[in-house]
Amino acid sequence: MTPAASCILGIETSCDETAAAVVVDGATVLSSVVSSQVDLHARFGGVVPEIASRAHVELLTPVVARAMVEAGIAGDDVDAVAATVGPGLVGSLLVGVSAAKALALVWDVPFVAVNHLEAHFYASFIEDPGLEPPLVVLLVSGGHTLLVHFEDHGRYTVLGATVDDAAGEAFDKVARYLGLGYPGGPAIEAQSLLGDPKAVDFPRAMLAQGYDFSFSGLKTAVINHVRTHPDISTPDVAASFQEAVVDVLVAKARRAGRDIGAKGMCLAGGVAANSLLRERFLDACVEEGLRAFLPSRSLCTDNAAMVAANGWWRLRQDGPSALDTGADPSLGLVR
Ligand code: KG4
Ligand code: ZN
């Protein structure tokens, strides 16, 4: 084990957020800068990989510079540079990974390769460094829906995953169908506030079966319902859809927490910014007598503070990563 480096510069470019952050000891966030490309992609209804990687090239240098200025540090103060190496869009990942390696070489400090999925867990550790495993983590993002048994740092068992669409993907696709724009999650949430969640009883797929999820049938059910009920109000559809997604996510997380005898349950990933999910997840934890960890919304969606925090833990555990570590667009959680 190498001695802990304290001041980590984190870099995140796996999808459409260009982000850099400075975090001390895996928990104290000195700065966290996120430049969203959402306006560039919105007119295409989703992320266009080529546009994303070109935008990262333009944005990364100013974003890193701002993170350093806001943190009040210079290159000499950085003890390691951590970057997301996967999973994600390969062109986007390469921009962040190359920049991180170059900075690590120039400053003569370790480079730390970070798994984006694992990094999402570390949003909880930033806000509650005393978090004690075993934990159940519900990771719900645009690309992934995972129910994970977090046994200890670096030791996970994937209990369940989506067999088709990720939860965030379902939000994005349904929002696009309803003409609510991109990204869909916040748009559906806003519409839901005006609608009746009991208006349509959408299917809760695989509710009682194991820990896997399926959201593709729900998306089709929404489309079919709107086609056959053209006068239905969009807020009612949005609220009923959101209710169905949250019902399934919370039911499975609660069952997993009970089954593995977890001490607590964490939410992670962009969909964890959803207010209804947060409220129901918290209620379930209270009812089960488990501690609940809900990272603040800005730490749920993609950011580099979680990458820097995860980098600090990884450096303590595994030491520096080799400089020939490549970007891996399909990197899984369990190595
Ligand atoms: O973790 P994230 O920022 O990026 C990925 O790693 O995928 O997650 C993005 C996803 C998108 O699908 C977005 O629609 C969803 O998170 N999202 C939400 C909310 N905010 C973001 N979904 C539901 N409700 C929200 N408030
Ligand atoms: Zn993410």
Summarize the structure in words.
- This protein has 335 residues and is an alpha/beta fold.
- It has two domains: 7-122 and 299-318, Nucleotidyltransferase, domain 5; 132-296, 2-Layer Sandwich (Nucleotidyltransferase, domain 5).
- It contains eleven helices and ten strands.
- Strands 3-2-1-4-5 form a five-stranded mixed sheet, sandwiched between helices.
- The model has no long low-confidence stretch (mean pLDDT 94).
- The structure holds 5'-O-[(R)-(carboxyoxy)(hydroxy)phosphoryl]adenosine and zinc ion.
Give the topology:
Layout: E1 7-12, E2 17-24, E3 28-36, H1 38-42, H2 49-71, E4 80-86, H3 90-107, E5 111-115, H4 116-127, E6 135-140, E7 145-152, E8 155-161, H5 167-177, H6 184-192, H7 216-228, H8 234-260, E9 264-268, H9 275-288, E10 291-293, H10 297-300, H11 305-318
Parallel strand pairs: 1-4, 4-5, 6-9, 9-10
Antiparallel strand pairs: 1-2, 2-3, 6-7, 7-8
Helix pairs in contact: 2-3, 4-11, 5-6, 5-7, 6-8, 7-8, 8-9
